[in-house]
Amino acid sequence: MSRIGSFLGALVFLALAAVSLYRLLFYFPITVGGHAIGQTASFFAFAAFAALTLIMFRGAATGQRP
Q1: What is the extent of the structural domain holding 23?
Q2: Residues 6+ apart with CB under 8 A from 21
Q3: Cross-strand pairs, 32
């Protein structure tokens, strides 16, 4: 993957991590198919997206594949 692709992927994961963090700080309900999605899912989503962001930014900085 090119450096531009890694950088764009990192930006997407950063945006998703920001949305997950926002939901953790300022609760707003999410319902999928009649089931409420809890804060625990948002925490795990934040942790996963933040880790992927770091991996992708490091790959973009060094030019290596993530």
Answers
A1: 3-62
A2: 46
A3: 35
Q: How many domains does the chain have?
A: 1
Q: What are the tokens at 27? A: 């609760």
Span 34-43, pLDDT tens digits? 999 999 999 9
CA distance 50 to 46: 6
Kind plus residue range of the DSSP H or E element containing 54: helix 39-62
Contact 58, 66 (CB under 8 A): yes
What is the per-residue pLDDT across 7-32, written as a single tens digit (0 to 9) for each? 999 999 999 999 999 999 998 889 99
For residue 9 the two structure tokens come to 């992927």
